[in-house]
Design brief:
heterodimer, A: alpha+beta, 9-stranded mixed sheet, 8-stranded mixed sheet, 30 strands, B: alpha+beta, 4-stranded antiparallel sheet, 3 helices, 11 strands, 20% helix, 20% strand, elongated
Chain lengths: 1028, 288
C-alpha cells in the first residue's frame, strides 16, 4: 500500500524528469555552490544523531524554555523583508528632486532680497518674503503630493503581500501545539499534513509517500516524492529534506502526517539565501525616469541659461544687482513647469489604475511606461501561456485521430461520438479512474470544479464529465469490485467492475497505462465496436498514432478492456489483487487519449499582437523541448512557416551541422546546451533567430537569458513565479510576477504582478504603456508651450522697460492652477493610430522630449501665445489711457513710489496705487489670454499627426472637463478673488477675455496645417523638423 | 528593475559634446548639416517676420479703435490723486524735515517750489483765457485754435503769500512754510457737483492745539471753471489749478503728521490701499 500514494506520476510518455536533473542544471550557475556550501550534512545523519545534534527528542520535542533560548539566538523564522528606503529619505528625495532645487534657489534668492530690502527700508520688501514662502510652499506641496502618490501605489502592493500568518503543528514539552510558523526554531519537531506549506527547512524523519511541490523553489511543476531515506550526497537533491515555502501536496492516508526536524529557519533556509541573492541585483533607473531626468535637465538648462543671460544683460543695462536677482527669480519661476512632475505622476497612476483593471498590478509607477518600451518578453510557459491544467487534446480509436476541444470553458465536445468503439473507450475512461470531484460543486462549471486526484486523472474525469454527464453516477452503477492502482513496475492501472446492464452478469476489466505496455497485454483491437485480431498492420497504425501524438508534446495513455467470461468468473467470484486471479493479458485494445496543458485561448492573438508590435516573445520553460515546441507552435511563438535548424536538417535529410543556421528563423535551445554556451554564442542565438524557445531551463538560467537580451540593447520583460525567478525578475527591465501561482519572493522582486497569470494581460499592459508614453509627450508639449508666454514678459520688461506684464504669483496660478487638470486630461487621450503596429521605441533615440517637441513648443506655439498675450496687455493699457508708445521705457517712473501724478497718454495723472492696480489688471488680462490660448493648445495637443477632426473633439470627455476647469478657475480667480490684493488679480472687463481668441484660432489653424503637411509629405524636411 | 547603465566619464562627455558640435564624419554641426541649418533659419526668419506682422497688424487695429481725445475707460480714475510740493520722499512716505537756521536744508525745498511755479507764470499761461464764472467750464465744441478747447488761466500770483513773488523763501526761514496742493487731472471729471472743492489740512491724531492754516486762493478752493478737463489733445495748454497752504503755528523740533484732504462731492479719501487718493499725508519737522 505504501507505493499507492505515488499514483500515476510517471506513467506518461515522454517526461522522465527528476529533481536531480533540475538541480544539476541549477548548478551551472555560480550561486549554486554557495547554496550547497551553506547546507549541513543533516541529510546523512540518523535520527538519533539528529536528536543529539539539535538537543531535541523525537517523542517530546524541545522544551519551551530551550526553544525560547534558540529563538532569542536565531531570531524568528521569517525572511527579512528587502531593505526598504526609509520613508523620510523618500520624502526628502521628492523635496529636492526634479525642479525643486531650482525653486529652492528661487526661494532663497527671494529671502535674500527681502533681507537686503528690509535693511534698506524699502516698502515692498515683504513681497519678496511672500514670494519666497510661496515658492517653498509650492515645492513642499508638490513634494508631498508626489510622495503621497508614490506611497499609495506602494500600499497596493503592501496589502498584497500581507498574508494570513501561517501556523505550524509543533511538538514541544511532549505536547502537540499550534504555533505561528515564525516561532519555529532549529530542532523543533513539526508535523505536516497534505496541503500545508513547509514552515522551515526540514529533515524528514517519519513519512509515508509524502510529495512536495517544489515549483516555488525550482520552477519544476511536477510534485516530488519525499521519504526518510538519504538518497543523494547533495543536500539539495536528497529526498529526506523538504524546503521552506514549498508545499506538501499529499501525504499517504494511514499516517496522515509527515514528521520532521527543523534544521534551518528564516534567512538561513535555502529560500532565504536565494532571496538575499535577489536583493543583491542592482535596482537601476527605469526608462521613463531617464526620460524625465533628461527633460528636467533640458528645461533646467534653458531656465538657468536664460536666467544667467538676462542677469548679465540687466546688470550691464545698469539695473541694480538686487533688481537683477529679482528678475532672475521671475525667469526661473516662468521657466519651470511647477505642476508638470505632479501631472506626470498622476498620469502614470491613472494608467496604473487602468492596467490594474486589466489585471496588471503595477508596483512601481514608472514601470507603467517601461512595459510600453519593452522589446523582448521572456515568458514562462506553464500557467502563463497555458491554462496550467492537463486537458484531453486528442483521441485515437477506430484507426483515426480525433481532436478534442481544449478551450477554458468547454461545455461539449464535438468530435464524432457515434462509434461503438467510443462507447467502450468512454466507459474505460470513466471507470478506470480514481479522481473524484470534491462534493458540493454541482453548480460550478465542470472546468472550474476542484478535483481530488492527480493531473492526468483530473483531465480524464473532467473530459468524461463533459461528454457523459454525471460520472459519479455511472461509477455507482458499475460497482467497482477490485482495483490495482498504478505502480511504477507495472505502469498500468486496472479495475474490475460489475456492468450496469442487469442482464449481463459478466465483469468488466478496464485498464489504462503507458501505451506500449498496454499494447503488449492486448491480443485484439476494437475497430468500429468489433474486436479484431491485433496484427502487425494494426500495431503499425498504433505506432504511427502514438508517435504522432507524442510528437505534439502530449502525454499519451492507452486504454483496453476485457469482459470476463461469466462461467469462469461468476457473480460471487472473489477477486484478489495480490495474487491476480484474473487475466491481465490478451485484452482488447480500445484506444489512445493524449493530454496536454493547452494554451490559453487568448494567447495566440496576444502573441501575434506582440509580433506586429515588434516585440520578440521568447519562451523560457523547464518543460521538455518537444512539449515546449508544440505549445510554442500552437500559440504562434514559433510561426507556422518557420523552421528550426533541426527541422531543416530533417527536411533536407542532411546532418544538423551542414544546415545554414541563417535559414532557420526559429530555435529551440535546451538548458543543457545553454549551460555549455559562451556569452557570445548566446548573443548569436538571440540575434540570429527571431523565434526562440528555451526548454529544460532552470530559473537561474533565466537570469543568463535576460542578461543576454539586455546585451542586445533590448528592454526586457520577464515573467516568473518561483523564488528562484526573483534574481531574473530583478535583473529584467520589468519583472512580472504571477499573481496566482507566484511566490511572495517573486512578487517582491517584480515590478508588476499579473493578477490572472495570463500572457494576454501583458500585451494589454504594453499597449497602455505605449499610449502613456505618447500621451506624456502631449502633456509635456502642452505644459512647455505656455512657459514661453510666461517668460517673454520678463525679457521684454527688462529690455523695453515696460510695466511688468505678468507677476510671479500669477505664473504660479497658471502652472499650478488652470493648467493642471487639462494636462492630466491628455492622459485619457486615445491612441492616434494602432500603436501595436509599430516597433518598440529605441530607448537611446526616441526620447520623450526631443528637439522637435521643445523647439516647436517653445519657438513656435509659445511665441504665438506670447504675441496674443501681449496684444491683450497693450489693449488693456491703451483703453485705460496708456498707449503702447507711452509704455516703452517707463519702468523706473512707473514703479516709483515718489511719483503720484504720473501722466498717461491723455494727460490724466495717476497715483502709484492706481498704476499698480492697472498693472494687476494687466496681469489678469495676460493670465486670461494665456488661459484662452492654452485651450487651443490643449486641443491641438490631442494629436501629433492626425487632424483633430479625425481624432474627434468629443471622444475624450476629460479634455472638456479640463477646458471647463481651466476657464472656471480663471473666472474664479478673476471675479471671485479679484478683490484679494495679495493675489494680484483684479476683476477684468468681459471683452478682454476675447482679445486672444483670434490668436487661439491662429494656433489651431497653424497646427492643423503642420499636421496636414506631415501627413502629406512623410519623410520630408517638414516631417523631420515639425513632428515631435 | 531596469538596468540602464549610462555612466560616462567626464572626458567621454566632453568628447561626445565636441562630436555633437561638429561631427567630422557626418559633417553635422550641432546635429544638423549646414544646408539644413540654412533652411531651418530661413523658416524661422520667415515665421518671425510673419508673427511680427501679425503683432503689428493687431496693434494697428487697436490704435484704429482708440479715441484720441479720451480713453475708453477710467476704471482706476474714479477719484483724483493729490500731490504736494515740495515733495521729499523718505522710506515711509513724504517726509519734509528742515532746519530754519541752516539755509542748505530748506533751499532745495524753495527751489522745488520755484521750479514748479514756472509753469504758472503769466508768460507760460498766455495761451489760456481769463475765466470769471464760478461754474463748470463746459465746452461741447472745439472753440480754440487748431481744433482745441480753451483752458482757463491759473497764474502763480493767485497764490498770494505763497506765490513766491512777495516772499521768495515761501516762509520757510520763519518756520511758517508754504505747501502747494495739486489735484490730479482726470478727463471729464466734475469735482464737487457744482460746489467748488476745497483743501482742508489738519493734524493726524490728537494734537494739543488745532493747526492754523492760511489757504490761497481764499478758502482753499479749486475754482469750478478749471473743470472739466478735456484731455491733452483738446486742451494742450491746460494747467492744474493749485491751492497753497501756509502753516502758521508749527511746533519746532517735533515731527508732526499732517493730512490735507480735498473736500468735495465725488472725491473720496477713504481708500485704505491708496494713501494719495483725495488726500495727501506728510510728516513735517522744523528744527531750529
Amino acid at each position: 500500500m505504501k507505493v499507492g500514494c505515488h499514483a500515476s506520476s510517471s506513467i506518461h510518455a515522454p517526461r522522465p524528469r527528476q529533481f536531480g536533473d533540475k538541480m544539476s542544471a541549477v548548478c551551472c550557475c555560480a550561486h549554486c555552490d554557495f547554496l550547497s556550501l551553506g547546507m549541513q550534512d543533516d541529510h546523512r545523519l540518523s535520527t538519533s544523531e539528529l536528536e543529539k545534534k539539535y538537543g531535541t527528542s523525537i517523542d517530546k520535542g524541545l522544551s519551551s524554555a530551550r526553544a525560547a533560548e534558540i529563538l532569542a539566538r536565531d531570531g524568528p523564522n521569517a525572511l527579512t523583508p528587502p531593505k526598504a528606503t526609509p520613508e523620510i529619505v523618500k520624502f526628502l528625495k521628492q523635496m529636492i528632486g526634479g525642479f525643486s532645487i531650482l525653486l529652492w534657489i528661487g526661494a532663497a534668492f527671494s529671502w535674500i532680497s527681502f533681507g537686503i530690502q528690509l535693511a534698506q527700508g524699502v516698502d515692498s520688501a515683504f513681497d519678496n518674503l511672500y514670494l519666497g514662502v510661496v515658492l517653498a510652499l509650492v515645492v513642499i506641496l508638490t513634494g508631498i503630493f508626489a510622495y503621497y502618490q508614490e506611497a499609495k501605489s506602494t500600499n497596493i502592493m503592501a496589502s498584497f503581500s500581507k498574508m494570513i500568518p501561517q501556523q505550524a503543528l509543533v511538538l514541544r514539552d511532549a505536547e502537540k501545539k499550534e504555533l505561528p510558523a515564525d516561532q519555529l526554531v532549529v530542532g523543533d519537531i513539526v508535523e505536516i499534513k497534505g496541503g500545508d506549506r513547509i514552515p522551515a527547512d526540514i529533515r524528514l524523519i517519519f513519512t509515508q509517500g509524502c510529495k512536495v511541490d517544489n515549483s516555488s523553489l525550482t520552477g519544476e511543476s511536477e510534485p516530488q516524492s519525499r521519504s526518510c531515506d538519504f538518497t543523494h550526497e547533495n543536500p539539495l537533491e536528497t529526498r529526506n529534506i523538504a524546503f521552506y515555502s514549498t508545499t506538501c501536496v499529499e501525504v499517504c492516508v494511514p499516517a496522515g502526517t509527515a514528521t520532521g526536524i527543523v534544521i534551518n529557519t528564516g534567512d538561513r533556509t535555502i529560500i532565504g539565501r536565494i532571496a538575499s541573492l535577489a536583493s543583491g541585483v542592482g535596482n537601476e533607473k527605469t526608462p521613463i525616469a531617464i526620460e524625465i531626468e533628461h527633460f528636467v535637465y533640458l528645461v533646467a538648462g534653458v531656465a538657468i541659461s536664460i536666467g544667467v543671460l538676462f542677469f548679465i544683460i540687466s546688470v550691464s543695462m545698469r539695473y541694480k544687482i538686487l533688481d537683477s536677482i529679482i528678475f532672475l527669480i521671475g525667469i526661473i519661476v516662468a521657466n519651470v513647469p511647477e505642476g508638470l512632475l505632479a501631472t506626470v505622476t498622476v498620469s502614470l497612476s491613472l494608467t496604473a489604475k487602468r492596467m490594474a483593471k486589466k489585471n496588471c498590478l503595477v508596483k512601481n509607477l514608472e514601470a507603467v511606461e517601461t512595459l510600453g518600451s519593452t522589446s523582448i518578453i521572456c515568458s514562462d510557459k506553464t500557467g502563463t501561456l497555458t491554462q496550467n491544467r492537463m486537458t484531453v487534446a486528442h483521441l485515437w480509436f477506430d484507426n483515426q485521430i480525433y481532436s478534442a476541444d481544449t478551450s477554458e470553458d468547454q461545455t461539449t465536445q464535438s468530435f464524432d461520438q457515434s462509434s461503438p468503439s467510443w462507447a467502450a473507450l468512454s466507459k474505460i475512461v470513466t471507470l478506470c479512474n480514481r479522481a473524484e470531484f470534491r462534493p458540493g460543486q454541482e453548480n460550478l462549471p465542470i472546468m472550474k470544479r476542484v478535483v481530488v486526484g492527480d493531473a492526468s486523472e483530473t483531465a480524464l474525469l473532467k473530459f468524461s464529465e463533459v461528454i457523459l454527464g454525471d460520472v459519479m453516477n455511472i461509477r455507482a452503477q458499475n460497482k467497482k469490485v477490485a482495483e490495482i492502482p498504478f505502480n511504477s513496475t507495472n505502469k498500468f492501472q486496472l479495475s474490475i467492475h460489475e456492468t450496469d446492464d442487469p442482464h449481463d452478469k459478466r465483469f468488466l476489466l478496464v485498464m489504462k497505462g503507458a501505451p506500449e505496455r498496454i499494447l503488449e497485454r492486448c491480443s485484439t483491437i476494437m475497430i468500429n465496436g468489433k474486436e479484431e485480431p491485433l496484427d502487425s498492420e494494426k500495431a503499425e497504425a498504433f505506432q504511427t498514432a502514438y508517435m504522432e501524438l507524442g510528437g505534439m508534446g502530449e502525454r499519451v495513455l492507452g486504454f483496453c478492456h476485457l469482459y470476463l467470461p461469466e462461467n469462469e468468473f461468476p457473480e460471487t467470484f472473489q477477486f484478489d489483487t495480490d495474487s491476480m486471479n484474473f487475466p491481465t493479458s490478451n485484452l482488447c485494445f480500445v484506444g489512445l487519449l493524449s493530454m496536454i496543458d493547452p494554451p490559453r485561448s487568448t494567447v495566440p492573438d496576444a502573441v501575434s499582437k506582440c509580433r506586429s508590435a515588434g516585440i520578440k516573445v521568447i519562451m523560457v520553460t523547464g518543460d521538455h523541448p518537444i512539449t515546449a515546441k508544440a505549445i510554442a507552435k500552437s500559440v504562434g511563438i514559433i510561426s507556422a512557416t518557420s523552421e528550426t535548424v533541426e527541422d531543416i536538417a530533417k527536411r533536407l535529410n542532411i546532418p544538423v551541422e551542414q544546415v545554414n543556421r541563417r535559414e532557420a528563423t526559429a530555435a529551440v535551445v535546451n538548458g543543457m546546451e545553454l549551460k555549455e554556451m559562451s556569452a557570445e554564442q548566446l548573443d548569436e542565438i538571440l540575434r540570429e533567430h527571431a523565434e526562440i524557445v528555451f526548454a529544460r531551463t532552470s530559473p537561474q538560467q533565466k537570469l543568463i537569458i535576460v542578461e543576454g537580451c539586455q546585451r542586445q540593447g533590448a528592454v526586457v520583460a520577464v515573467t516568473g513565479d518561483g523564488v528562484n525567478d526573483s534574481p531574473a525578475l530583478k535583473k529584467a527591465d520589468i519583472g512580472i510576477a504571477m499573481g496566482i501561482a507566484g511566490s511572495d519572493a517573486a512578487k517582491n522582486a517584480a515590478d508588476m504582478v499579473l493578477l490572472d497569470d495570463n500572457f494576454a494581460s501583458i500585451v494589454t499592459g504594453v499597449e497602455e504603456g505605449r499610449l502613456i508614453f505618447d500621451n506624456l509627450k502631449k502633456t509635456i508639449a502642452y505644459t512647455l508651450t505656455k512657459n514661453i508666454a510666461e517668460l517673454c514678459p520678463f525679457l521684454i520688461y527688462i529690455i523695453a522697460s515696460i510695466p511688468m506684464p505678468i507677476g510671479t504669483i500669477t505664473i504660479l496660478f497658471i502652472d499650478l492652477g488652470t493648467d493642471i487638470i487639462p494636462s492630466v486630461a491628455l492622459a485619457y487621450e486615445k491612441a492616434e493610430s494602432d500603436i501595436m503596429n509599430r516597433r518598440p521605441r529605441n530607448k537611446r533615440r526616441d526620447r520623450l522630449v526631443n528637439e522637435q517637441l521643445a523647439v516647436y513648443s517653445y519657438l513656435q506655439i509659445g511665441i504665438m501665445q506670447s504675441v496674443g498675450a501681449f496684444v491683450t496687455y497693450f489693449t488693456v493699457y491703451a483703453e485705460q489711457g496708456f498707449l503702447p508708445s507711452t509704455l516703452l521705457g517707463v519702468r523706473v517712473d512707473w514703479e516709483s513710489n515718489a511719483i503720484n501724478d504720473f501722466e498717461d497718454s491723455y494727460g490724466q495723472q495717476w497715483t502709484k496705487y492706481q498704476r499698480t492696480y492697472l498693472q494687476w489688471t494687466g496681469y489678469t488680462a495676460f493670465f486670461v489670454s494665456i488661459t484662452i490660448q492654452q485651450v487651443a493648445d490643449l486641443i491641438i495637443r490631442k494629436t501629433r499627426r492626425n487632424s483633430i477632426f479625425r481624432q474627434g473633439l468629443f471622444r475624450n470627455k476629460v479634455i472638456w472637463v479640463g477646458i471647463f476647469s481651466q476657464i472656471g478657475i480663471a473666472l474664479i480667480l478673476t471675479y471671485g478673488l479679484g478683490h484679494v490684493t495679495a493675489l494680484n488679480f483684479t476683476p477684468l472687463r468681459f471683452q478682454y477675455w476675447f482679445v486672444a481668441v483670434p490668436f487661439a484660432i491662429l494656433i489651431w489653424v497653424y497646427d492643423e496645417i503642420r499636421k496636414l503637411l506631415i501627413r502629406r509629405y512623410p519623410g520630408s524636411w517638414w516631417d523631420k523638423n515639425m513632428y515631435y | 528593475m531596469a538596468t540602464l547603465n549610462e555612466k560616462k566619464t567626464c572626458s567621454e562627455r566632453m568628447a561626445d559634446f565636441r562630436r555633437f558640435v561638429w561631427n567630422p564624419e557626418t559633417k553635422l554641426f550641432l546635429g544638423r548639416s549646414l544646408i539644413n541649418w540654412v533652411w531651418i533659419s530661413l523658416y524661422y526668419v520667415a515665421f518671425y517676420v510673419v508673427m511680427s506682422g501679425v503683432f503689428a497688424l493687431s496693434i494697428y487695429c487697436l490704435m484704429r479703435t482708440i479715441n484720441p481725445y479720451e480713453p475708453d475707460y477710467q476704471d482706476q480714475l474714479k477719484s483724483p490723486g493729490v500731490t504736494i510740493r515740495p515733495d521729499v520722499y523718505g522710506s515711509r512716505g513724504l517726509q519734509i524735515y528742515y532746519n530754519v537756521s541752516d539755509n542748505k536744508t530748506w533751499e532745495g525745498l524753495v527751489t522745488t517750489l520755484h521750479t514748479f511755479l514756472t509753469a504758472y507764470t503769466p508768460a507760460a499761461q498766455h495761451l489760456n483765457i481769463n475765466c470769471t464764472n464760478n461754474t463748470y467750464f463746459i465746452q461741447e465744441t472745439f472753440d480754440g485754435p487748431n481744433k482745441t478747447k480753451l483752458s482757463c488761466k491759473f497764474t502763480s500770483d493767485m497764490l498770494q503769500n505763497c506765490s513766491g513773488i512777495t516772499d521768495p523763501t515761501f516762509g520757510y526761514p520763519e518756520g511758517k512754510p508754504c505747501f502747494i496742493i495739486k489735484m490730479n487731472r482726470i478727463i471729464k471729471f466734475y469735482p464737487g457737483r457744482g460746489i467748488a472743492p476745497r483743501v482742508n489740512c489738519t493734524y493726524v491724531g490728537e494734537e494739543s492745539r488745532p493747526l492754523e492754516v492760511d489757504y490761497y486762493p481764499v478758502n482753499g478752493t479749486f475754482n469750478l471753471h478749471y473743470f472739466p478737463y478735456y484731455g491733452k489733445k483738446a486742451q494742450p495748454s491746460y494747467s492744474n489749478p493749485l491751492v497753497a497752504v501756509k502753516f502758521l503755528n508749527i511746533t519746532k523740533n517735533v515731527e508732526l503728521k499732517i493730512v490735507c484732504k480735498i473736500i468735495g462731492a465725488g472725491i473720496t479719501f477713504d481708500n485704505v490701499y491708496d494713501p494719495y487718493e483725495g488726500k495727501v499725508e506728510f510728516k513735517l519737522k522744523i528744527e531750529d
